Amino acid sequence: MAKPNPETLHLLYEADDKPPHILSAIIGLQTVSMIIGGIVLTPVIVLSATDMKASQADWAIFAALVICGLTTIIQARPIGQFGSGYALFMGTSGPFIAISVLALNMGGLPLLGTLVIISALVQFLMAGNLSMFRAIITPTVRGTIICMIALMVMPIGFEMVSSLPEGSDASPRSPMWIAILTVIVLLGISFYTSGQSRLWAPMIALFTGYICAYYFGLVDFHKVVSAPIVGLPSNGWPGLDFSFSSSFWTLLPAFVIVTIVGTFQTYDHAVAIQHASSKTVGTTDYRLVEGAVNVDGLGNFLSGLACTLPNTTYSTSVAILDITGVASRRVAIYGGLLLVVLAFFPKLSALLQSIPEPVLGGFVCPLMVFLFLHGIRLVISDGLPYDKALIFGISFWIGLGFQNKQIFDGLLPQGLADFFGTGVTAGGTSAILLSLLITLKNKRLYQHIAELTDEGLFSSLAFVSNTAKQAGWTGKDLYRLTLAAEEAFIFLRENDNSKAGKLKLSVRLGPDEATIELTSFAAGVNVETLIREMSSEQDPSSATDDDIRLAILQGVTADLKHEQFNEAEILRMTLLRETVRDI
């Protein structure tokens, strides 16, 4: 029997429930009102930092709203392997701000669209191999890259903070006061409030800064007045650039690396929304996580075709769910439809484009501080041992050095100079390489491939036994290791629905701890879920062979995780030596 989850007992409606349409529409509207600023203002911020024409901003905003709305609906109502099946809202991706500004300055919207399309293909590749990429792109690597993203965006925010429109009669100090007020309101609400009030902090800060900018005479309403209430953008699709110039190759690595970070942001949000949307404690279905990442890739691909900024999942989805207690996917469907409808209201787009740059700068800078802190939290999420600190420290300063052209400037071959042209590329590449090197140094990994047959079982048990003996495991500890491997192997074999019939057995051994991983194709049942649902009051005489195997696995392992992906499943068991278990 599934156990109740004390953190979600307040839920009124779970994901599969169907609350009244009016309630769903109201909550969908509430969520959209909180995220639309991020969806629309991200393109506005990027285009404001360039010399792009306002008409092109109209198109970029229109496309962003339509694509975010459509992908939000697909997240809620999966199509094949696309979609998570949860109320996971999509929005424009902030981490792309800095490199999108570079792309627009080098080649305009056509170059940006081509870069987003190619990087989206990488995201599809990752979605089909999440189990492999997750072992490479560790939280330390992701945290380092996120810190570099914040570092690249900050100078853009600083320029906006001090920007005064040409021909303005306002005091040169007015942008400073506008930006300071925007920052104070944003940080004040974030620090001194909680719950729903905190979610409104960005919009309240923007509104306050906007009023202040109007007082100083920095708001131009001409475009807002002249824009039609309902209609299409004044300019159409700008086209794509497939010339693959030097600018394309210089920026492509940075777009790919930021896309990788966005992939795992979606990964984290998809895991969180699953647990937040159920009243019972359940295991994560990584097939649905892959579905969420596929939609993220689809959204980026469509964004590239439309020549607008990439999109990603918004963590606001989980926050709104916690506050309202409504996790029904019907909310996301209404919200997605509303986003699409809003795209056809040019006056809304014009109003948001009229926000002066000092307000946008005062909005961006604190958000980049929060993004930087998020990166730091990822780095230290599992503690900060010497190795992780080394990865972060070296990669961060390498990225900063290349970003400011203070490392090997003019000395590298042109190809390498282009590749390391941004701090994100240089720092991210360094973090990935250092992480791989330290992983190889710290862990002794032994692997064995076996058929799911009796012969495969015997060879696997011999492999585990011989490997453990070489590492000094003896007596009861050795027996428990081989027993865990045997029971897990037999369970997977008995429940295997694939035609491949092969299994990869991996063993990592330390002085006090061992980890056994069995990787195979989808078996259709989750060992972790079955163990969690086992009843302690079950009559032993009615126990099946599978029940006995599960009870043994529960007894001999210190931790057991069963992660099922579309491409494979991983059963990971951690066992401690008896001397450690007794402490």
Structure write-up:
The chain has 583 residues and is an alpha+beta fold. The chain has helices spanning 21-48, 54-76, 97-127, 130-136, 139-161, 174-192, 196-199, 201-215, 222-226, 246-276, 286-306, 316-324, 329-342, 346-353, 357-379, 386-403, 414-419, 423-442, 454-470, 475-494, 527-532, 545-556, 578-581; strands at residues 90-92, 311-313, 445-451, 502-509, 513-520, 559-564, 569-576. A hairpin with a 4-residue loop joins strand 6 and strand 7 (569-576). Helix 6 runs antiparallel to helix 8 (201-215).
Summarize the structure.
By secondary structure, the protein is of the alpha+beta class.
Head-to-tail CA distance between termini: 32 Å
Query: Biggest sheet: strands, sense, closure?
Result: 5 strands, antiparallel
Global shape: globular
Work out the number of β strands.
7
Tell me, rounded to a whole number, the average pLDDT: 85
Secondary structure tally, helices? 23
Please identify the structural class as seen in this structure.
Answer: alpha+beta
Write the layout of secondary structure elements.
Elements: H1 21-48, H2 54-76, E1 90-92, H3 97-127, H4 130-136, H5 139-161, H6 174-192, H7 196-199, H8 201-215, H9 222-226, H10 246-276, H11 286-306, E2 311-313, H12 316-324, H13 329-342, H14 346-353, H15 357-379, H16 386-403, H17 414-419, H18 423-442, E3 445-451, H19 454-470, H20 475-494, E4 502-509, E5 513-520, H21 527-532, H22 545-556, E6 559-564, E7 569-576, H23 578-581
Antiparallel strand pairs: 1-2, 3-4, 4-5, 5-7, 6-7
Helix pairs in contact: 1-2, 1-3, 1-12, 1-13, 2-11, 2-13, 2-14, 3-10, 3-11, 5-10, 5-15, 5-16, 5-18, 6-8, 6-15, 8-15, 10-11, 10-12, 10-18, 16-18, 19-20, 20-22
